[in-house]
């Protein structure tokens, strides 16, 4: 029987996790495994966030230099079990180099991954609310009061500690703490898979001329087929995957998200109609489309500590590391394309505890792509394996703080480290 609101009492101390993307999944599971009562809130009908509704089921990177594992814990447990169920084998990580790094992300079946997560939520007795949106957070003397909006209307839950895993820092914002919102953010992408044509037989010259005419008439825009400038065959070469770009919209709130979804689907419609008219694309089909436009960047918290690009590149030794990270910084720029900064060989960046704590807050944590980091560092930290690792760390931190009757900031670090390592988190 699914775990529902009805079969739980409110007596134990509670961690409430908002957002069940990869960060929220790991935060909730770890909080429950570390002994807390846990509530998980998700606005969609499925967990996974960008991994499922965003159509980006390709978590990376769990292994780094010389094939050594850098991220373990719950994230790796979920990926490994999904692969086992699907009888898939992971890539040979020993073949990793700085040039071929993206081959070492791991395609997972999103249906199996999310069903597995649901099973684990039940096993840990996590109270899950799908189709439920955060409406309001208020800090009282001893706890948080959280108003939620379900299909039957508004209802409330209380919790000692909140973990914001919304990808957009919605809870931190509602609680009144500062956010860092970039003036220009990385483009969104509608993940699609196209079929019905041969990507090896693209007549570049004919298409380029047709594009010139259609662009002049306003029927196609550059970012529909690639980046923000000029004709590109990127969309066609990749059969759509991760190739269209929706520029200049920040999808951090409902208004921005609405704009992004509409602009994204209009972009796909333009690309489809344009291509369908071209020779060789008569049978073009969009076989699959993510249910939401994927958001690379919207807002990050202003934390007690902030990871900068230089911290990331140099593998800064933080006094209280809670997770490792591994991915080149790759900022998608609307006009320049990918701005990439490699991690020097042998370096493994880490994340400090303070990057999960909104500055000045009590009993509030953040995890996933919203952790405190500058734009460039965030372009490496936003990757799914790292989001899973920061989620797990936030879950442990929340549960242990309640157990030891202190705030997440004041919990003695050795206790956190011991708990994380007991749960297979890899730390320097
Ligand atoms: C196009 C694209 C390609 C990418 N490619 C890769 C890749 O190949 N490999 C990789 O590892 N990473 C990739 N990434 C990055 C990665 O997928 C994301 O950064 C990561 O999944 C973010 O995880 P998260 O849990 O922090 O947030 P999200 O995935 O955004 O999850 C947030 C969850 O919170 C829910 N939520 C939000 N607001 C509320 C609210 N107010 N109330 C209730 N619920 C709420 C959402 O519905 C969602 O389920 C890509 C990202 C994009 C956009």
Description:
Helices cover 31% and strands 17% of the residues. It has 428 residues and is α/β, with parallel strands linked by helices. The protein has two domains: 5-183 and 299-422, FAD/NAD(P)-binding domain, CATH 3.50.50; 193-289, no CATH class. It has a five-stranded parallel sheet with strand order 3-2-1-7-16. A hairpin with a 2-residue loop joins β5 (144-150) and β6. α2 packs across α3. Flavin-adenine dinucleotide is lined by residues 18-24, 41-44, 49-51, 54, 56, 58-60, 105, 133-134, 165-168, 170, 189, 191, 242, 294-296, 368-369, 382-384, 387.
CATH topology tier name of the largest domain = FAD/NAD(P)-binding domain
Q: How far apart are the termini?
A: 41 Å
CATH superfamily of the largest domain: FAD/NAD(P)-binding domain
- What is the chains' assembly state? single chain
> What is the number of E strands?
16
Question: From the 3D coordinates, which CATH architecture of the largest domain would you assign?
Answer: 3-Layer(bba) Sandwich
Broad structural category: alpha/beta
């Amino acid at each position: 029987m699914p775990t529902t609101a009805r079969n739980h009492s409110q007596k134990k101390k509670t961690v409430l996790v908002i957002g069940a993307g990869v960060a929220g999944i790991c935060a909730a599971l770890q909080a429950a495994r570390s002994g807390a009562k846990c509530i998980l809130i998700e606005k969609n009908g499925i967990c996974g966030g960008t991994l499922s509704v965003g159509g980006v089921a390709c978590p990376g990177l769990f292994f780094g230099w010389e094939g050594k594992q850098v991220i373990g814990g719950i994230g790796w447990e979920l990926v490994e079990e999904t692969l086992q169920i699907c009888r898939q084998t992971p890539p040979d990580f020993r073949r990793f180099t700085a040039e071929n790094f993206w081959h070492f992300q791991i395609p997972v079946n999103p249906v199996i991954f999310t069903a597995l997560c649901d099973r684990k939520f039940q096993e840990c007795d996590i109270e899950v609310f799908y189709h439920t949106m955060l409406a309001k957070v208020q800090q009282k003397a001893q706890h948080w009061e959280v108003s939620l909006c379900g299909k039957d209307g508004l209802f409330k839950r209380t919790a000692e500690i909140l973990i914001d895993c919304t990808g957009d820092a919605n809870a931190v914002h509602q609680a009144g703490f500062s956010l860092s919102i970039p003036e220009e953010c990385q483009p969104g992408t509608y993940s699609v898979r196209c079929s019905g044509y041969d990507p090896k037989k693209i007549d570049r010259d004919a298409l380029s001329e047709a594009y010139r005419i259609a662009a002049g008439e306003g029927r196609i825009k550059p970012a529909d087929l690639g980046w923000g400038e000029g004709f590109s065959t990127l969309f066609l070469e990749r059969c759509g995957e991760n190739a269209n770009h929706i520029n200049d919209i920040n999808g951090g709130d409902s208004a921005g998200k609405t704009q992004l979804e509409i602009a994204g689907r209009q972009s796909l419609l333009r690309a489809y109609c344009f291509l369908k008219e071209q020779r060789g694309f008569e049978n073009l089909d969009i076989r699959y489309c993510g249910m939401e436009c994927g958001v690379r960047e919207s807002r990050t918290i202003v934390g007690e500590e902030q990871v900068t690009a230089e911290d990331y590149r140099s593998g800064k030794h933080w006094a209280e590391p809670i997770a490792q990270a591994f991915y080149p910084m790759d900022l998608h720029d609307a006009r320049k394309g990918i701005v990439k900064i490699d991690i020097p060989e042998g370096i493994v960046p880490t994340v400090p505890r303070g990057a999960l704590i909104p500055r000045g807050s009590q009993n509030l944590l953040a995890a996933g792509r919203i952790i405190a980091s500058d734009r460039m560092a965030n372009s490496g930290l936003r990757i799914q394996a790292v989001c899973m690792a920061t989620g797990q760390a936030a879950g442990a931190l929340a549960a242990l703080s309640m157990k030891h009757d202190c705030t997440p900031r004041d919990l003695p670090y050795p206790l956190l480290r011991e708990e994380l390592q007991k749960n297979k988190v890899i730390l320097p």
